């Protein structure tokens, strides 16, 4: 478990009648990793060795028409929360999820690409008109889907979202301004928080406490506020002042 800067982990080996508990007030500590190391020391002669990891299979790139690669370039929303930028750089296709570094997407066919850094396969899909509309990503037993987004809003369109917003629950407010062509959330206790438009009224940032912003509107399409979500909080209401 964890809260604020506190971390904890506990587990038990019933056959060996042995348990490990790790408690910490250091937020970046990985208590599970530490507990495993302790168990490795005390149970070294009682536990079987870990099975060897499968060898990494080198993927050979196939030749793909540059026009097909260009068709895949764009913005995608992965599982409704992570913005993925696909770009063509020279004769390579690159992917960048969120604020992670760019990774090369190695073509296995005209539609399927391998991403070594994530050990995952990405397959692009088209609609009946031939337009690229989504991609499916498979990593081990995990499957995710990302749908293609339209062009981002312009700086002029962002002014609609600017204003003062207040949360009666938290007793605090943010001022949203357009700065250097981006929507920015400002608070007297924090540095500027740039927001990235995902789709329509949905925005995100790279701050853990300000991850997803969903603006709300009234019956006349006027912005009335937003709902803020982060790792441990969902839909905290901020009203436009």
List the helices and strands and how they pair.
Blueprint: E1 2-3, E2 6-13, E3 18-24, H1 31-42, H2 66-72, E4 74-78, E5 82-89, E6 92-97, E7 103-107, E8 112-115, E9 120-126, E10 132-139, E11 142-148, H3 155-158, E12 163-167, E13 172-179, E14 182-187, E15 190-199, E16 202-207, E17 210-217, E18 223-230, E19 233-240
Antiparallel strand pairs: 1-2, 2-3, 4-5, 4-11, 5-6, 6-7, 7-8, 8-9, 9-10, 10-11, 12-13, 12-19, 13-14, 14-15, 15-16, 16-17, 17-18, 18-19
What does the model show?
By secondary structure, the chain is mainly beta. The protein has three helices and 19 strands. 15% of the residues are buried.
Structure summarized in a few sentences:
The chain is mostly beta strands and 241 residues long. 10% of the residues lie in helices and 52% in strands. It contains three helices and 19 strands.
Structural class: mainly beta
Through-space gap between termini: 38 Å
Mean pLDDT: 93
Main β sheet profile: 8 strands, antiparallel, barrel
The Rg value, from CA coordinates, equals: 23 Å
In spatial order, strands of the major sheet run 4-5-6-7-8-9-10-11
Fraction of residues in β-strands: over 45%
Helix count, DSSP H or I runs of 4 or more residues: 3
* DSSP helix fraction: under 10%
Annotation, overall tally of beta strands: 19
Q: Which runs of at least 5 residues are low in confidence (pLDDT < 50)? A: none
Sequence of secondary-structure elements: EEEHHEEEEEEEEHEEEEEEEE
Shape: flat
